[in-house]
User: Fold this.
Amino acid sequence: MIVAPSILACDFSRLSAEVSKMAEAGASFIHLDVMDGVFVPNSTFGPELVAKVKTPAIKDTHLMVINPYSRIPDFASAGADIITFHIEACKDEKEVHACIELIHRLGKKAGLSIKPLTPVEAYAPYLSEIDLALIMSVEPGAGGQKFMPSALDKISWLKERGLPLNPNLYIEVDGGINLDTGRLCAASGANVLVAGSYLYGHEDYEERVKGLLEL
Ligand code: DX5
Ligand code: ZN
Assistant:
C-alpha cells in the first residue's frame, strides 16, 4: 500500500519537519490539498506553498478549485508530481480531456477525482488516459470527517474497469481513512490511502503509517 499523509492536519508552523517525519516513517506520497474557497467553502494554499515543500516523496496535489485548466500550469511549475483535479469542476468532457492533456504535456501525472455524490461511471471516458483516480470518501473541503462506505463499490469498479486498461493506475481514497476503513479500501482494490487526522498530531504516527503500509 502507498500512504499519502495529508498536510492539512499537520502543524503548519513546522511544515518541513512535519513533511519529513512522514516520509521517514515510510510515506512515499505527500498529499497537498489545495482549496480555493469557491469549489469548496474553505481555502488553504496555492502553488507558492507547494513549491516550498521539500521532500523526496511524490508531491500528490489535490486541486479542489474551479477552472482547473487555468491553474494547472502554476502547480506544475511549483513541482507537483501528480496533479489531480475534480470532474465536477469541468463544464464538459472536452474540458476534462484538455486538463489531462495539459498535465501530461507539462510532464506530470494526471489524476481525476470525484465527489461522493458523483457516480463512478463518470470515469469511463478517461480510464485509459489518467494515471490516478481519486475517490473522495467524504465531502471535499475539510479534514476529520467520517468515511462514507459508498466509496468501496467505486473502488471495486475502478479495479475491474480501470486496471485492465492501465495496470499502473493509482486507485486512491481520501477522507476518513484509519486502520479499519483503510483495510476495507485495500480489500476493495485501493492502492493509495490518503490520511490526515489519523496520522498527524499523534505520538504513534510511525506505527500508524506502518499499519497502513501493510494493508
Ligand atoms: C478533504 C481533503 C482530505 C483531507 C483528509 O477535502 O481532500 O485530503 O485532508 O483528511 P482526513 O484524513 O482527516 O479525513
Ligand atoms: Zn485530498
Notes: The CA atoms of residues 34 and 212 lie 24 Å apart. The longest helix spans residues 93-105. The chain has a mean pLDDT of 98. The beta strands are 2-5, 29-35, 58-64, 82-86, 109-114, 132-136, 170-174, 192-195.
